[in-house]
Write a structure and sequence with these properties.
Strand order of the largest sheet: 9-5-6-7-11-3-2-13
Helix content: 10-25%
Shape: elongated
Oligomer: single chain
Largest sheet: 8 strands, antiparallel
Number of helices: 3
Structural class: alpha+beta
CATH topology of the largest domain: Glucose Permease (Domain IIA)
Distance between the termini: 36 Å
Strand content: 35-45%
CATH class of the largest domain: Mainly Beta
Number of domains: 2
Order of helices and strands: HHEEEEEHEEEEEEEEE
């Protein structure tokens, strides 16, 4: 299954690859060069289809759980201050998404979107802690039964487009798709104090399935 957020890119790549294959087949002399060009086009097409894959997921249910919004690797867990939505102390869990990960993002909790902001910025490598405050990013704040949660879609060195068709007032349904970041990136999840973190640095996460944390009634 290909994500609807990638239809535009996939359409362009499929067209260009088919044109390239046809041109190589009919207009290039030499079997070796013809084969190489066709293989390159097919490899590029295969990678594009693989990148924009969107597998179905089975989300766990339960009160107070926070699901991972992204596939990737946990690279940072630390206390921070977040003044724009949470309004004070928070715990940040950062997930790095390589170009080989599924890049469709999913809601981490049930609730209502109360905050949304897109910030233009740089394109530092997403593994770098500074990317959280300097790179282009989208901030989405969800009010849930236990309080507030903020997460950031952060563009990386390769990623140049954040897709987040989200508006204040939208309903968030844990595990459901809401957007993506194209070609390598990072997602930060900021939780109110008191949340019990269920992952550690180096853990692999699966969007909509991995439990990142468990919330207290006020977290």
């Amino acid at each position: 299954m290909i994500t609807r957020y990638g239809y535009d890119v996939v359409g362009v790549v499929v067209t260009l690859c088919l044109i390239g294959i046809a041109a190589a087949w009919f207009f290039v002399d030499g079997k070796v060069l013809k084969s190489v060009l066709i293989i390159i086009a097919l490899a590029f097409l295969t990678f594009t289809l693989y990148f924009f894959r969107d597998p179905e997921r089975q989300s766990p249910s339960g009160d107070g759980i926070v699901l991972s919004p992204a596939d990737g690797t946990v690279v940072l867990i630390q206390p921070v201050r977040e003044e724009e939505f949470i309004g004070g102390e928070a715990v940040q869990v950062s997930i790095f998404m390589s170009p080989l990960n599924v890049h469709v993002n999913r809601w981490p909790v049930n609730g209502t979107v109360r905050f949304f902001r897109h910030i233009p910025g740089e394109y530092i490598v997403a593994m770098d802690e500074k990317s959280s405050t300097r790179n282009e990013r989208t901030l989405i704040g969800v009010e849930h039964a236990g309080g507030k949660l903020l997460f950031k879609q952060i563009a990386g060195f390769i990623a140049r487009r954040i897709v987040a068709p989200v508006q204040i007032g939208d309903s968030a349904v844990a595990g459901q798709r809401f957007g993506m970041i194209k070609f390598g990136s990072r997602v930060d999840v900021l939780l109110q104090p008191g949340a019990a973190i269920d992952v550690k640095i180096g853990d692999k996460t699966v969007a909509g399935e991995t439990v990142l944390a468990r919330l207290t009634p006020n977290g």
